[in-house]
Amino acid sequence: MRRIYVVRHAEREDNVNSKWRRDYPEFKSDNSPLSKRGRSQCDDLRKYFENIEIGSIYASPFDRTMETASILLGNKENKIKVEPGFIEILYLCEDPPGYWPIDQLADKFPKVDLSYKPVFKTCPPEDDCLERVDKTLRKILDREEDTENIVVVSHGSPVASIYESLTGRYQYIGQATISIFEEARAGSGHFVCIQRAGRDHLSAENRVNLRG
């Protein structure tokens, strides 16, 4: 039975440090890396996924999602499939969005799968991201028809759009939380939410103020 584990990235540096670009002058304003607590939250995520056999993992190309996915994997051999279809809603991004090109991402994050062909190489103009996220998710599910555990690491609005795509309800959730969707019947393409914005994997200090 297929399961989709949807993870919103952990805490960003700009959540706690308004002057963060002084320390990261080469980063665009929409591409904050994780904070120290964010990386600690990712270590909690790593422990959660330690005994789960991940079939495929997809991540938005922004640093905060790539860091979350990379730390989450720990010593697993999975490669990260970088998918611009899961980037943040465009009105919250620079124009064009300020993530690194794929070759630079691969230099920063060695687990990048350079053979992966994304659903979206660039994102078209949009009023919201639901149509883009739904198309991305459906294409991935078509490709991963025999994959049991699929992990998606994305942002607040795209994760809420995944909820709407799979359940019909837009659901904004907190950072570093895990939502689990299970296929109701093998091969049906119909998923039910069996865990909504789970946070029990987070330590006490990492479980508060998740900005959901």
UniProtKB/TrEMBL annotation:
CDD domains: HP_PGM_like
One Pfam match: His_Phos_1
Domain of life (superkingdom): Eukaryota
GO molecular function, one term: phosphatase activity
Entry-linked SMART domains: PGAM
SUPFAM superfamilies cross-referenced by the UniProt entry: Phosphoglycerate mutase-like
Record-linked PANTHER family: UBIQUITIN-ASSOCIATED AND SH3 DOMAIN-CONTAINING BA-RELATED (PTHR16469:SF27)
UniProt-recorded name of the protein: (pine wood nematode) hypothetical protein
